[in-house]
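agent> step 3/5: call structure_predict on target 'Vacuolar protein sorting 55' (Chlamydomonas schloesseri).
agent> reason: downstream docking stage needs a structural representation; sequence fetched in step 2, passing through unchanged.
tool.input:
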Amino acid sequence: MAIQDFRVIMVLALGVSTGLLLQLLGCVLFDNWWPMLVGIMYVLVPMPYLFFGSTGGDGYAIYGSNIQSGWVDAGKFLTGFSAVGSIAIPAILAHAKVITIGALIMELAAALVLGATVLTYDYFNSKDTGFF
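tool.output (status=ok):
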């Protein structure tokens, strides 16, 4: 295993750990566990993408490529639609005054970090250098 492979894996592990820590801290620090509903969305978001598959071609799997099919497009659409829920749930809870603005900021930061981690994984996974 090359040093570059090890660094990428460590960055991905750090990103997932940081995102989950922010998610948990958003609940613990503000003594309100309603934001954990977003945890359900973290499980549901990749499901359409996994079921309908990715392109597997030369292009990036999430960003699009030369080979497109209706099922892959449907999977990307449903994944994006589900990803909006991970941002909308805390926003709706904050609007309804169920959670505080601090918890909303922590939840949105967690979604941002986890989303960036997924995009980083997808970027390195679509390369032909055999990372994962």
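agent> step 4/5: record observation. The radius of gyration is 17 Å.
agent> proceeding.
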